Fold:
Amino acid sequence: MSGAIGGISDTLLYLSGVSVSFDGFRALNNLSLVLAPGEMRAVIGPNGAGKTTMMDVITGKTRPDAGDVIFRADTDLTRLDEPAIAALGIGRKFQKPTVFEPHTVHDNLLLALAGNRAPHHALFARETRAERARIDELLAIIRLAEHRYRRAGDLSHGQKQWLEIGMLLAQEPDLLLIDEPVAGMTDAETAETARLLREINRTKSVVVVEHDMDFVRALDVKVTVLHEGSVLSEGSIEHVSADPRVIEVYLGR
Amino acid sequence: MRAFLLLVLLLLPPALARAQQVEPAFAAIASQDYDAMAAGIGELATSGDPRAGAIITALQAGHLYADAAGGLYIRKAEGNFVAADSGAPAMPDEDALKRLRVNNGVRRAVAAALGGLQLFATDPATRRGAAEAVFKSRDAALLPVLDRALAKERDPAVRLAMEQARAAAILTSATAPDAEKLAAVAVIRARGDLDASALLASLPNASPAVATAAHDGVMAIQRVLQLWDMLEGVFYGLSLGSVLLLAAIGLAITFGVMGVINMAHGEMVMIGAYVTFVVQETVRQNAPGLFGVSLVIAVPLAFLCAGLVGIVVERSLIRFLYGRPLETLLATWGLSLVLQQAVRSIFGPTNREVGTPAWMSGAVPLGGLTITLNRLTIIVFAFLVFAALMALLRYTSLGLKMRAVTQNRAMAAAMGIRTPWIDALTFGLGSGVAGMAGVALSQIDNVSPNLGQGYIIDSFMVVVFGGVGNLWGTALGAILLGIVNKFLEPFAGAVLGKIAVLVLVILFIQRRPRGLFPLKGRAAEA
Amino acid sequence: MTRATVASFLVPVLIIGGAALLALGNAALPPTAALHVSVFVISLVGKYLCYAMLALALDLVWGYAGILSLGHAAFFALGGYAMGMYLMREIGTRGVYGNATLPDFMVFLNWTELPWYWYGFNHFAFAALMALVVPALLALVFGYLAFRSRVSGVYLSIITQALTFALLLAFFRNNMGFGGNNGLTDFKDIIGFDLHADATRNALLLATAIALAGAFLLARYVVASRLGKILIAVRDTESRTRFLGYRPESYKLFVFVLSAIIAGIGGALYVPQVGIINPGEFSPANSIEAVIWVAVGGRGTLVGAILGAILVNFGKTYFTSALPDVWLYALGFLFILTTLFLPHGLVRVFSRARPSALPEPSPAKEHPA
Structure:
């Protein structure tokens, strides 16, 4: 395997020829995508283009029928399951905000903090000073400091999105996969989220799947357009907006 | 005189020896000449004459008398006489009567005649039974009788039985040539049942060639028998599978299609069984002539009753619990307790007698199998119900709406389908089908308030095993589980077989949580 | 001290104190006294407390991990059988056939030697250990297979029910060597004390109360720990925990095995107090009945499970003697009405228990990613 991927040593994530089909429907069709360390990438595409399936493949939820998914040039993700991939340093945010609703914001972050994930450890674990300090930092980043002891289920939609991003950060991943972070957000929240993601991108690589073109424009990063399970176009937002194939897919004939 | 009688007998072609032409045989028996008597007995026995049995039996017992004129009389136990030819009471001159005595030759003829006598009976079934008896007794002495009977026999089934009996007799004979014995082995081998195998396995006086042929024959028969055994297993499995299918198919709709965990499903089956009971009681009291069709009447009524109960349950209970599967499970379990207790209050706690109409009783042989008609009817009924259900879902407007609602509720509602009504009707349909299953199960199970409980776990196993939401999977799963169960039984016994199947299904579900035929793709993920 | 801490000390005190008062009322007051507690009541309360342990065990997996086990009575029964086997061996030569090693039913079946799996059960300590180990092993194997394959929700419920059903059928068989249909009964004494003596009954009641209180404290510790929080997270949002790097299956397995052990202890204490264990204890109906105790009391509260078990069983005792025909109606409607109108159980009605422990009316559906 290492011979085949010799040329990708400076990539963080490398997808090549990935195909997935459900009952004859090809969700991913020979998809290839390369992400450099430290890069932020926006992935756009119409419904059913395969964006979420791509995330599923990277995080181990779905096994591809064919193709390579290589992380940090040496790890074949298709052989690992979700917890193992998470432990490698890949965090994932769902399309719909998914937090532990009965728990407080504080506990949500505590459970997400990097550390021993074994049950016997969790049974006797006490909150350490370092953990508390890190939670303080995270609360500041996601602007939820004053909501620390509120039930996560009582937060607003946008606050839940931020909490989930905070939980991702607590994992200390190298790569964040973020699915539609601004769906259902107000304009102010959207702008705030774009700022948050750019800040995160200073230390980590990020893949953002989004529909909201203004938001993608605000991120100002390289854009990959997916269509019918493969890459239709790739480049700056100006480049892909001018691509006639993209226009056709988005606006129809 | 003696030579003349013999001549007459020998000249009589056997085919002409009809019942009305037995007088020469009477004369021969009365002749008191042993050779003539033996020949006369043989002739009388093969004539098919109804009087033959009584006469020969009397001769054997020493109760046959002849007068000087050649008239034969039978002395009854009370001491009075009847005329052997007419059977009418007679008052012969007792001084002129002579008791007919026999020697060994005559005695042999008598024995053979009695054994072979029924081979000439007028009823084909009796002739066949006699041939079977000869087959089992394997008496080589009966060979001549068999030959004569075969010469007369026209019924192919009886002929076959006689040929097999003849072959058995040849094989036991010490004198028959090898060529004949080999031919006989072939005949027995073709018969191919356990008796044939036993006969071939224990041949007396067999030459090496015959013994080899017999051994091959035994092997071949065993193979055939194993095949029949397997077919029998398949039939019983199919029968059990059809019962499972009937019990599960309603659940395949409510649980598989709608996603509602109805633990009271078994009670819908029970309601169907009690409807059958009520229908039969009503028919018995008011129109006993209709008893034969009582089950046919019960089927639609059971469907309506159980379906109605289902609709009421859906409207009053289940619709408040959509999206809360575990709560639905608990509430419907409570419902099942209430329904059981209600039936117990109305009909009493004991088993109720549901009769089986004549057309469902008995069995038909099919090759080496015995097919019981009630099992066969249930198999056919199960497949009819399944086919009707598939047709309803596929070809009717209601079926289309049901499929639409289960696939995309919001879209269906937007298209103007009244989804609450479709929910109620779908649930009613599943319950109604369960009620129809109850009619069938009333034929093979005790009709008691606990009837349904016995089926609920099996039904869930079948639906989950077959793949939730897939009616074809349910059908195949039921048949497969039925057959596997029946094939495990000989090795493990009924209870262990059932346990084994349960454990197998549990393990299977863990291997393939979505069942045998999973729905794939995004729809299944949601 | 927070309210939760107060509650976690108050409950054991109430359980043990109550049991002690009853035992005192039996032992210290003469039978003629108005407040004398009959041995019948002692046994009845002992039985309720054993059921409460089963309910507590069930609440641990259902209320906190979302595993609705419809076969939990199987663990209870297995613990009971382990104890029953000891009590059987303890009869010794006092059985009908007077055989020193073979229990009566084996002599009756013309068995000549003790099956290997009966070895060691003449020692109380071994039997007590087995009452924990056997349910734990079954839970471990079954749970490992089920959770690893991500069987969950209703499917899991149905296969747990199939599991106990299979055990029911198995234990009904005479050649299993557990007394078949009749089960194990006619016990004489336990570690030398006459089972029919009032003092033994009182001691058993106290032992049960202490075991229940201990199990409660243990369960309380587990659910309040970080592991407990992760369990709740797994219950409501399993995929989120997985993408955070947790293995939900090991958490579920831990709590499932712990719960089986608690249920097994309950069963082991149950048998000497009711004097019999038979395959009926495995019937799926028993397991589902235990679920309604938890539902009535309030799942995800621990206290509710204990309360529900005692209340429902008190009701059952009352109805089955006073109005036997009504009991099944009552139980049936209890299931229906509780799920429709009291999804959080009685505890939620009377107090505002720790909110984080209380699940939504139904476990949140996994979000399709």
Q: What stands out?
A: The first strand of chain B starts at residue 64 and ends at 66. The CA atoms of residues 73 and 83 of chain B lie 5 Å apart. Chain B touches chain A at residues 520-522 (CB under 8 Å). Residues 12-102 of chain B form one domain.
